[in-house]
Amino acid sequence: MGRVNGDAERTSEVDYLIIGAGVCGLHQLHDLLEIGADVRVVDANSGLGGTWYKNRYPGCRFDSESYTYQYSFSEELLQEWDWKERFAAQPETLSYLEHVADKFDLRQHITFDMRLVRAEWSEDDLRWTLTFENGQVIRAKFVLYAMGLLSVPTYPRIPGRGTFRGLETHTFDWPEGYDVTGKRVAVIGTGASGVQVITDIADKVESLSVLQRDANWCAPLGNAPISKEEMQELRERYDEIFAWCRETPAGFIHRPHRTLSTDVTREERLRHWEELYNGQGAGLYMGNYRDCITEPGPNRELSEFVAGKIRERVEDPEVAELLIPKDHGFGTKRVAGESGFYEVFNQPNVELVDLMAHPIHEVTETGIRLDLGSGEFRDLELDVIVYATGFDAVTGPFDRIEIIGTDGVRLKDRWKDGPETCLGVQVSSFPNMFVLVGPQSGSASANFPRGIEDVVNWMTQTALYIEEHGIDRFEGRREAEIAWVEHVREVNSKLLMSQTRSWFNGHNINLERDEKPRVMVYLGGAPRYRRRLTEELENGYPSFLLSSSAVSATLST
Ligand code: NAP
To answer: Phi/psi class of residue 525: alpha, beta or left (left: φ > 0; alpha: ψ in -120 to 50)?
Structure first.
């Protein structure tokens, strides 16, 4: 960048502007620099790392195997980085991303504290004008959104929220280094974030009230340190590991069996599930018989197996029953990896509050008031309230920016009944705007760096094409967009996952509980998505309209 307009010191120009310096934005920046593009990254945060910069709550770690959650673009990087644990905690992952930025000298191309508030397309000069909260303006030929899927936290709409005199925080906004030792804490929500924070703080706090609406399925993570020998062995197998992950549906090391659960005896099934339960990572969820997450019968049997484990691990049978999900089967929502979550409920300082029976009446100055019914209330006296209540996922970051395309059309209006995208990478009427992380993209449901790789590689190849052919306008075709949304809807409908209430289906923004599901993520698997994107590259972008004013011709019609 660096070309500053004389009359407006706060306006600058760039060819490619990436919004977001997280896992995706950093990768894209690296690759566009490699091809010599004029590129810059902006981020609303004060440091890089995206989700790993923000999520500093105790216990935060990923449940993808560390060695699969890393970039594969540099052999040198792969060989020099040691992972300490099978499933790295947030500080380690953030250090890894900082190391990547330093190694490839990326920081000089990133500007922090730049919250985008408005982006407007101009047909006159084929540029986006992007306005930031701090008054800066950037004009860009191409805008690439990499804002993350889970970067807008949802605080529940509870009367009195904000009046509490202690600390009220969302897991995503956890104050750096805040220590809960000896404090009276309530955690609302038992999704993946809630499960982690609850497990981590339970034996440090004076008291812990876990406020649960619906229970979620969890399975043991099997975390452990990685020894030097193990690390060396992994390093030698990286090519094989990445080649394998590229062919699994979600980019994980786990892959569903070709065998159906009904092809084997019950004894064999149970033995296998026992092994998976005691294994590492998401094996029970992603590396199981394939009918376990597509067919109601097999799914019920697997769910009953996991429910049995919960009953064995939780001493109080009533608490165990509350922790067993009744509204969905195992693996039909994202399963949380846990490390002693169920045993927490055997501790005397921990109680599970069933919000279905006793909803929150209000937040008070001193804690939370529960409604016991018949005009009776119970007050929880607290020092800390933690909202582990999830995110306005996938579309939330876009909804918070005024994005205006051709003829004044607003993205918010285009997506008011649910998002529609052309292959998950563009939106018709929004030329030169690329979505690297967003709705209906294969990247959205995959182990992040693996899913991202496909989109970033496609974008880099597309940028090369743009440069070589002097393309100055690139827009998804409406008919291709309609076809893609239909394809995503059809593919997703084959999985039980499409029928559950979770952020995967747009139940993420505290809407009414009967809100119509939306087509948020593509569940067709990373290999199929990659093939679809590759087809576009190989066939000259048939789903897009490309034009170059230099040669005054439409190159692809
Ligand atoms: P989440 O899965 O959406 O869970 C939100 C929790 O808050 C649910 O238990 C939900 O209950 C509850 N909740 C929401 N609104 C509520 C309200 N008004 N009153 C009471 N309870 C309420 O969010 P998350 O746990 O932050 O996880 C989101 C995603 O982040 C995960 O699916 C995963 O992709 C990612 N993540 C990954 C990791 C990891 O890799 N280990 C860790 C954390 C997060 P209901 O179910 O009743 O709505």
So the answer is: left
3-state secondary structure of 145: strand
Q: What is the distance between the alpha carbons of residues 330 and 323, in angstroms, rounded to a whole number?
A: 13
Does any domain span residue 65? no
Report the residue among 174, 193, 352 best suited for mutation to probe ligand 1: largest number of ligand atoms under 8 A from its CB.
Answer: 193
The range of the structural domain enclosing residue 112 comes to 3-48+106-152+392-468+477-556
Q: Which of 203, 185, 120, 172 lies closest to 408, judged by CA?
A: 120
Best residue among 209, 368, 389, 502 to mutate for probing ligand 1, ranked by most atoms within 8 Å of CB = 389
Taking Cα atoms as reference points, which of 93, 491, 69, 496 lies closest to residue 285? 496
Q: Could you tell me if 314 and 324 are in contact, meaning their C-beta atoms sit under 8 angstroms apart?
A: no
- Ligand 1 centroid vs 301 CA: distance in angstroms? 25
Atom 16 in ligand 1: residue holding the nearest Cα: 389
Residues 124, 122: Cα–Cα separation, whole Å: 5
Is the CB of 189 inside a 6 Å radius of any atom of ligand 1? yes
Is ligand 1 within 6 A of the CB of residue 440? no
264: in domain: no
Q: What is the pTM of this model?
A: 0.95
**Total domains in the fold of the chain:** 1
**What tens digit of pLDDT does each residue of 312-352 get?**
999 999 999 999 999 999 999 999 999 999 999 999 999 99
In a domain, 540, yes or no: yes
- In this structure, the dihedral spanned by the alpha carbons of residues 163, 169, 170 and 176, taken in order and rounded to 10 degrees, is 160
Q: What CATH number is given to the structural domain containing 406?
A: 3.50.50.60
Is 526 part of a structural domain of the chain?
Answer: yes
pLDDT, one tens digit per residue, over 350-388 is 999 999 999 999 999 999 999 999 999 999 999 999 999
